[in-house]
Amino acid sequence: MNNNKYSRKKALLKSGAFFPKIAILIAFIGLIIIGVQLFHQSHYQLVITDMNSKEVLWESSIKIGDRFSHQYIHSVEKSPVQEIFELSNSGEIVTMESWTKSFGAGLPYQHQGEVSMKDGYYVMRNLNRPIHGGVLRMKPSNLYPHTFTFQDETFHLSQKPFVKRFIEINIQKISWWNKEIREGGIADG
Questions:
Q1: Cα separations (Å) of 146 from 82, 137, 180?
Q2: How far is it, in rounded angstroms, from Cα 130 to Cα 115?
Q3: Which of 46, 66, 131, 153 has the greatest number of CB atoms lying within 10 Å of its CB?
Q4: How far apart are CA 12 and CA 18, in angstroms?
Q5: Sign of torsion over alpha carbons 112, 114, 117, 122
Q6: Which of these, 125, 45, 164, lies nearest to 93 by C-alpha position?
Q7: What is the pLDDT of residue 50?
């Protein structure tokens, strides 16, 4: 009788009767793994807000490794400055490059990263320096041009709705279940 049980099990295995159950189990486990990865996957928004009212003035989706910049005329040195930032792997804003025509109050004064000269600018690259407090804060003035660039979009911070407001440029981490389809753009004001 033991030999008969063994023969039936062997026949079932050879017939492939267990294959559909195993395939379904493997597919189910695969779906669970994909679901867990999606559940933990985060999306990021690059957001400009009014620091006082918390009003969102502009926002756009951003991915790790994406860069953005702002260009302005330094109020003391009266020279152009460009700073380039990146969303790091850890989800924070880091300064990657700084372009200045001079060194002085409020401008870089230490040799950091790779320093070179290009078109009359002192260029510091590969700074990889986290932003203090994780948020860029500024009050754009209408006295000098001040622009912000992300992907193919450049707009003036020295104009409405940004001018004369204390603004914050920040990264917001949004989980996939809270992600809304949002279009980047400038709020009217």
A1: 10, 14, 30
A2: 18
A3: 46
A4: 8
A5: negative
A6: 45
A7: 97
The 3-state DSSP class for residue 87 equals strand
Residues of the chain with pLDDT under 70: 1-19, 35-41, 103-112, 175-189
Domain ranges of the chain: 2-40, 43-186
- For 20, the token pair is 């559909």
pLDDT at residue 154, rounded to an integer: 96
pLDDT score of 17: 54
Token pair of 134, please? 């994780």
Q: Which two tokens stand for residue 119?
A: 């078109």
Burial of 178 (0-12, 13-18, 19+ CB in 10 A): exposed
At 150 the three-state DSSP class reads strand
To the nearest whole number, what is the mean pLDDT of the chain? 81
Asked if residues 150 and 186 have their Cβ atoms less than 8 Å apart, the reply is: no
Please spell the DSSP secondary structure of 30-47, one letter per residue.
HHHHHHHHHHH-EEEEEE
Q: Is the dihedral of CA 20, 21, 22, 27 positive or negative?
A: positive
Tokens, residue 81: 């400055």
**pLDDT at residue 181, as a whole number:** 43
Structure tokens at 1: 């009788």
**DSSP classification of residue 56:** E
Phi-psi region of 16 (alpha: psi -120 to 50; beta: other; left: phi over 0): left
